[in-house]
Write a structure and sequence with these properties.
By secondary structure, this protein is of the alpha+beta class. The chain has one domain. 16% of the residues lie in helices and 39% in strands. The protein is built from 2 helices and 5 strands; from the N terminus they run H-E-E-E-H-E-E. It has a 5-stranded mixed sheet. The longest helix is centred in the first third of the chain and has 15 residues. The protein is elongated and about 70 Å long. It starts with 11 loop residues before the first helix and ends with a strand.
């Protein structure tokens, strides 16, 4: 961990908004990027793509939870460590209108190269896999990625969101070793 006085306090809503803006400016993985934070999966139904971002990858934050972790000295029993855990579900998705498209190879006569896997899932997996692609220091943050688990989603909610559901946890050290 770096010097905490030189870093921003973590707030997942602000962090992912800044990340989407950074990725949009950089055209990360050849995509444009947008961000929304309805904070519930039901709220994904009301998440409308911003004008001009209909074809972008949308980062949609849901189920944001914050909790604390404390450690104590075995001898003195005094607290010697404090951290804040940020747990979330983040969707990295695109809108798809062709609900008859193969996910991979279900219907004969349609090449795998035209499947959702080839057009959406595999490219995003290479772009987002394991969370290691985030340049935390460039954004001014210092935290540990505790978990970053990805699950494929297909035609989720009314917008037919298709891509990845990421369940993650970040740990921000507040004090101690």
């Amino acid at each position: 961990m770096a010097n905490l006085s030189n870093t921003k306090r973590l707030n997942a809503v602000t962090f992912f908004k800044e990340l989407a803006e950074s990725w949009k400016a950089a055209n990360k993985c050849g995509n444009c990027w947008s961000f929304g934070a309805p904070l519930t999966e039901a709220g994904m139904n009301t998440q409308q793509p911003q004008s001009g971002s209909e074809c972008c990858v949308h980062l949609i934050l849901t189920k944001y939870r914050v909790g604390s972790t404390y450690k104590y000295n075995d001898t003195t029993k005094l607290q010697n460590y404090e951290a804040c855990n940020h747990n979330f579900t983040l969707y990295a998705v695109v809108q798809r209108s062709d609900t008859g498209q193969n996910v991979f190879n279900e219907i004969e006569g349609h090449p795998i190269s035209e499947s959702l896997w080839s057009e959406v899932h595999d490219p995003l997996l290479g772009c987002l896999g394991c969370g290691r692609e985030m340049d935390l220091c460039a954004l001014g943050y210092d935290f540990d990625i505790i978990s970053w688990d990805m699950e494929a989603v297909i035609f989720k909610e009314d917008q037919n969101w298709t891509g990845w559901k990421i369940t993650g946890s970040f740990r921000e050290k507040l004090s101690g070793n």
